[in-house]
Amino acid sequence: MAYRIVTDTCCDFPEQMYEELNLAVVPLTVNYMGESFNAYTEDWLKECYDGLRAGEVATTAAANPQDWQDVIEPIIRSGEDALVLAFSSGLSTTYQSAVIAANELMEKYPDRKINVVDTLCASLGQGLFVYYACKKRDAGFSLEDLTLWCDTNKYHLCHWFTVDDLMYLKRGGRVSAATAVVGTMLKIKPVLHLDDEGHLINMAKARGRKASIEALAKKMGELGLPGANDTVFICHGDCIEDAQYLESLVKEQYGVKNVLIYYTGAVIGSHSGPGTLALFFMGEHR
Q1: What pLDDT does 226 receive?
Q2: Model-level pTM?
């Protein structure tokens, strides 16, 4: 039975990748400088990060059940089923909204199936997870087989990242005001990850930017699944040179062949700030 993969814009793909991977996508909204945006070009993201540096504040809104229904219902009406891969429930209500929408649509279309997976992922970590799911779909996995694969392997999708300015995490309640002030004074850079519940967890501290970037690469050496990381993803908060340095480390140290580098999207970036840098790969565990 034919099915379609549906995700949301928190996977932070470049625009063309949604089409290349044959994805249906639900937008999340960013409110910035008095306007609401739900599509983010590379030029707009650059402008948004420049604004954040200048003191502008962006706020975000999760996808609601109607947003999901607007995208999923045409798929169901066409006779296809759907596999929904949603932004982490540990960071947003977007997944819960997808479940509500799916249940309502399956009542309306009882012959159709909509499987919803809480990816427990964010940004290009969610993107890498969706990318792998698309590869399995193209290899012939059924809807049920792919759902099982996703529910099992999401716990192997490692998210390791650092930020350049602790004040953005303080604003979102991720670190205390005292930690942010002292860390900024001492040039301490946190090394964080997403845990098995999709929550952001502070795991270590590095003295200086270069050390924090090298700590991300080191985590791949410690956790990476042998033979599973020909392709890794890196996202950045408008700090492309740092992303390229991280790319060089993982290629030289671990034989990675393919690296996708792109912006941390506005939904995540508005909370983590300019200078965010993250590495995503498959590991023994998160």
Answers
A1: 92
A2: 0.94
